[in-house]
C-alpha cells in the first residue's frame, strides 16, 4: 500500500487527499471536483460523476470513500494521462486552425469549436461558464487568455508534472502493489460498477 514516505503518484495523491480532509481516512465525494482541480486536472461534471460511478457501491459509507481507495482510482487515471489540461502548444495548434485570419482571437463559434476539440466532455452550460471568464467586452477570446486560463502556472501543483519529475529522476511512478491492486483488484476498476443488483442507493455526488 502506498505510504506518505514513498515517492509515488498514488502516495502523493493520498497525502493530499488526507490533507484536504484534515487527516481523516474518509473523503466526502462532494469535495472531489475541488480536489481534482487542486491536482491540476481539467474535467467536466459528467467526468467527475463517471469517476464516482466507477467505484463499487460497497466501498461507500454514505457519501464518503476511504482516502486510500479514492487515491488508487485517481492514480490509475492520472497514469493514463486522463484529464490533463491541453498544453500551450496544443492550444496554439487548435487556435491556428480556427483563427484563419490570424487575429489572435476567437469569436463565439470559434470558441465553441475550440472547446469541442480540446475538452469535448464539457456541457453547453460549462462551456458558457468558461467563455464568460475569458471573453472580452467584444465577446472575443484571446489566445493569451486561453493560455493563462488553461495552463497550470509553474508555481501551482500539477500531479502530471509531479509524475514527470519522478520519471526524470529515475523514480518509479508505479506502486508495486498497484498492478495487482492488492485488496481492491477485483473491485475498483474505472468505468465498472461493483454491484449490479441495484439494491443500494447511489451516493449523492453533489457536483
Automatic annotation (TrEMBL):
Residues 86-121 form the EF-hand domain. InterPro entries: EF-hand-dom_pair, EF_hand_dom. Residues 172-186, 197-207 have a biased composition (Acidic residues). Residues 172-207 are annotated as: Disordered. PROSITE patterns: EF_HAND_2. Transmembrane segments: none annotated. Residues 187-196 have a biased composition (Basic and acidic residues). One of its GO terms (molecular function) is calcium ion binding. This is Uncharacterized protein LOC103517624. The gene is LOC103517624.
Amino acid at each position: 500500500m502506498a505510504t506518505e514516505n514513498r515517492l509515488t503518484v498514488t502516495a502523493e495523491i493520498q497525502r493530499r487527499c488526507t490533507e484536504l480532509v484534515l487527516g481523516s481516512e474518509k473523503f466526502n465525494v462532494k469535495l472531489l471536483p475541488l480536489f481534482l482541480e487542486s491536482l491540476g486536472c481539467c474535467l467536466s461534471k459528467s467526468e467527475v460523476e463517471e469517476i464516482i460511478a466507477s467505484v463499487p457501491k460497497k466501498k461507500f459509507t454514505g457519501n464518503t470513500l476511504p482516502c486510500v481507495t479514492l487515491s488508487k482510482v485517481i492514480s490509475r487515471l492520472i497514469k493514463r494521462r486522463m484529464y490533463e489540461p491541453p498544453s500551450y502548444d496544443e492550444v496554439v495548434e487548435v487556435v491556428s486552425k480556427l483563427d484563419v485570419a490570424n487575429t489572435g482571437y476567437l469569436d463565439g463559434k470559434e470558441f465553441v469549436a475550440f472547446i469541442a476539440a480540446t475538452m469535448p466532455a464539457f456541457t453547453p452550460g460549462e462551456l458558457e461558464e468558461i467563455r464568460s471568464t475569458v471573453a472580452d467586452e467584444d465577446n472575443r477570446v484571446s489566445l493569451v487568455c486561453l493560455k493563462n486560463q488553461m495552463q497550470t502556472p509553474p508555481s501551482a501543483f500539477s500531479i502530471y508534472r509531479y509524475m514527470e519529475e519522478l520519471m526524470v529522476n529515475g523514480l518509479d511512478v508505479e506502486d508495486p502493489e498497484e498492478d495487482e491492486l492488492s485488496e481492491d483488484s477485483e473491485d475498483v476498476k474505472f468505468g465498472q460498477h461493483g454491484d449490479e443488483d441495484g439494491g443500494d442507493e447511489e451516493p449523492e455526488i453533489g457536483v
